[in-house]
Amino acid sequence: MVFAAFAGVGQDAKIGLQAAFVHLIYNLFAIVVIPLLRPVPLYCAGNLARVASEHRWILAVCPGTVFIALPALSSCWWACSE
């Protein structure tokens, strides 16, 4: 386990306590934020379904943008940054 690497005494105990504290804050943050964000995907999906029922061309543009255009742009950006 990764956490077993932090177990120790003396100076090593500071690293273990810091890692435990970071995980505690992360978990508390998730407990607070996730219930607040839970309705967002349902709201977005409902709006996308409503718009797509009115404009059929969105059914082709949306997946094409998400699965082809955005990955292509990100790989071009990554290749040009080097």
Can you give a write-up of this model?
- The two termini are 35 Å apart.
- It is flat, with a radius of gyration of 22 Å.
- It has three helices and no strands.
- The chain is mainly α and 82 residues long.
- Helices cover 82% and strands 0% of the residues.
- The chain has helices at 11-37, 39-54, 58-81.
Describe this protein with a few key phrases.
82 residues; mainly alpha; 82% helix
Blueprint (SSEs and pairs):
Layout lengths: L10 H27 L1 H16 L3 H24 L1
| Distance separating the two termini | 35 Å
Query: What fraction of residues sit in β-strands?
Result: under 5%
Annotation, overall tally of beta strands? 0
Order of helices and strands: HHH
SS-based structural class? Answer: mainly alpha
- Average predicted local confidence, pLDDT: 85
- How can the largest sheet be summarized? none
Unreliable stretches, pLDDT < 50, 5 or more residues? none
- Using only CA atoms, what is the Rg? 22 Å
- Count of helical regions: 3
Helix content: over 70%
Tell me, what's the shape? Answer: flat
